[in-house]
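ZP: hey, is the zinc ion complex queued? I don't see it on the tracker
AM: it wasn't, my bad. submitting now with these inputs:
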Amino acid sequence: MTHSSDDSLVASLAAPQVLRAARLPAWCSAHAVGLVDVWLAAGRIERITAHDASVPAQANAWHLQGAPMLPALVEPHAHLDKAYTVHRSPPLGPGLLAAIEAGHGDERHWSAADLRSRAERALHDSLAAGVRLLRTHVSWFQPEAPLAWAVYRELRAEWLGRVDLECVNISPLGLFEEAALAERIAAAVAATPGGVLGGFVHTTNHSEAALRHLMAAAARHGLRVDLHADEELAPHAHGVASTARLAGEFGLAGRVACSHACALAVQDEHTALTTLDAVARAGVSLISLPSTNLLLQDATIGRTPRLRGITLVHEALARGIAVAFGSDNVQDAFNPVGRHDPVAALELAVMAAHVRPAFDAGSALVCNVDALGAGERITSLVGMPADLVVFPGSHESAQAWPSDARERVVLRAGRKVAGMWPPASGAAW
Ligand SMILES: [Zn+2]
């Protein structure tokens, strides 16, 4: 079979064979300095070579002109059932507990159509941002699975291969107080593809028995766990420490994440670092959520917040703990602004947690799936699926940060699934 040159041009626009003059971060490229050519074959990254400008233009090549490129992004923590509701359910006061109350108030609007349309908006935005895996927490306050759980199960099937959707129940810890009920919830979560067992662990509801039931049920069902743990500034909060202890006891290494872990920021150094040592030993990961921590911690009316509630990212990384940054709430009672974009979460983390260098090291924390127990930490892209996101319009400097001046171009298994190639203004981009 032969192809006309027009056919090959169309094919190259959708599925290039080489991405020339790309800039990859140092953490996933052996070519830490300078631009690279990334060669694709059968939907995978076959090899990466230093950029060779002397190679003549090819029909099946995209010339990225130095644009930054990242592996597919990961959104480790969203709340799709709450997203885009702030206009109808604003919080009546500052802080986490007022936001939780307003969030509950919004549930009267949660028909299947309402849940679906807001989640689809979030999924479309995530795909355009370059997200391949999105984990959402889902409010689950009764023994039975909520309506959103069924809606998202359908959406997961519809979106598989574009954005892979994982659902975590966020339930008050008290729901696990009875072992039989803990078992029932875990069984329902385990029956859901991509299901992860979760809960809200806070000093206002802490129960060793309930947390133990939750972790034991996870172990029995082979589930991963993701807890909202110590999302508060109480120095005596010990949800993370208890979780690490139980993860060790039940052999859950690599399968448990603690989201938030704000209290570590206000504990004395010895206590906080002892907890992190235990977290590292138990193979528990941390998911840091700067936007909602900055907004909801130390929040009182008419007073500038002093305490910012950012978990101990540097100390965790120094201990080999898997860390990810997430977007958390978007335009709901918990956060009136924001978007489903891990790069925006990373930008906030650069400022709030002094992550540096932002592109060459920090970007690993919005691309790796290890903090979700969903795979190994990436150290090289060679041999990986060609799931990539290109940031056109950022090429002027080798140090340039990914720009949002142009639409991102998203590849899945080497094929373009979002964005426009070549970018709209052609050679001038
Ligand atoms: Zn959350």
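AM: back. The chain has two domains: 5-70+381-428, 73-355.
ZP: great, adding it to the tracker
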